[in-house]
Amino acid sequence: MTWFWVLLPVLIALAYLLLAPFYVEINTASDLYRVRFHRLVSTALLITGEGLQMDLRIARWKKRIDLLAPRKSARNEKKKPAKKPAGRKHISFRTIWAVIKTFKVNRFFLTADTGDPALNGKVFPVVYAVSVFTGQNLSVNFSGRNELILDISNNLARVLRAFIYSSLKTRTWKT
């Protein structure tokens, strides 16, 4: 009976990792570039006047890391020679496409201005046709405003399923 109480939290944690969604959020209007795993882990990229910083949050722990700051390196470390990979395994295009298709677009908005009114006039009908065909919010403006709002979600179970099934389809069997 004790094995059940030991195994139960492990199974619950595994189910949580597989089924909890992760999000990729990009909002250029508010300078938000964030990747987060449900409510547990998030990392945001902050562009400030001083440089580039990453805001890392794990549960209630927070840390801000300056990505452009010089790193402190230990002088006593010996550099190990790089190992050459024995045999590289290639992932097929079908597998990559199957994994990309598992992502769900929750919100998408794009408005762009090329800076050239003549080019904007030429691109406008194409962008309008694409927005009508795809049902997404795409537009060309003439006011010099470029904005992207993108919110994508997925979970590990869908990614693994797509990766395994598409890898099995592309594998050739020798008889």
At a glance:
The chain has four helices and eight strands.
Judged by helices, strands and strand pairing, the structural class is alpha+beta
What separation lies between the terminal Cα atoms? 47 Å
Major sheet characteristics: 8 strands, mixed
| % residues in beta strands | 25-35%
Task: Report Rg.
Answer: 23 Å
- The strands making up the biggest β-sheet line up spatially as 5-4-3-2-1-8-6-7
Question: Helicity, in percent?
Answer: 25-40%
Structure description:
34% of the residues lie in helices and 31% in strands. The protein contains 4 helices and 8 strands. It has helices spanning 2-19, 93-101, 117-134, 156-170; strands at 21-27, 32-37, 41-47, 52-58, 61-66, 104-112, 137-140, 147-155. An 8-stranded mixed sheet has the order 5-4-3-2-1-8-6-7. The radius of gyration is 23 Å and the shape is extended. The mean pLDDT is 85.
